[in-house]
Specification:
Radius of gyration: 13 Å
Number of helices: 3
Strand order of the largest sheet: 1-2-3-4-5
Strand content: 25-35%
Number of strands: 5
Structural class: alpha+beta
Order of helices and strands: EHHEEEEH
Distance between the termini: 20 Å
Shape: globular
């Protein structure tokens, strides 16, 4: 596994059902809740964020960020980024 799960209960919930009921701390409201991070590049992470009262997923890598409404789109993007990171790791 080329990523580390940071918040297993929410990570698993996101795969099975809505995350609209997940409570956030004040800090998580501001910065998002980290769900998973790449083992090869800790700047690549998957977050759950609150956007105007709606829970969405945010794939962050270096200084870029892409927000997704659904788990599958976010996970596909995060997985693609993981494969890029792994490819860079093997060519360096």
């Amino acid at each position: 596994m080329n990523y580390k799960i940071i918040n297993k209960p929410v990570f698993e919930q996101a795969q099975l059902r809505s995350v609209s009921d997940v409570p956030f701390t004040e800090e998580e409201l501001e910065n998002g809740m980290k769900l998973a991070v790449s083992r090869a590049d800790d700047t690549l992470a998957l977050y759950l964020v609150d956007v105007d009262g709606q829970k969405k997923f945010d794939v962050r890598w270096d200084d870029s960020s892409e927000v997704f409404s659904g788990w599958y789109s976010a996970w596909d993007n995060f997985s693609w980024c993981l494969s890029v990171v792994d490819g860079q790791k093997t060519t360096n």
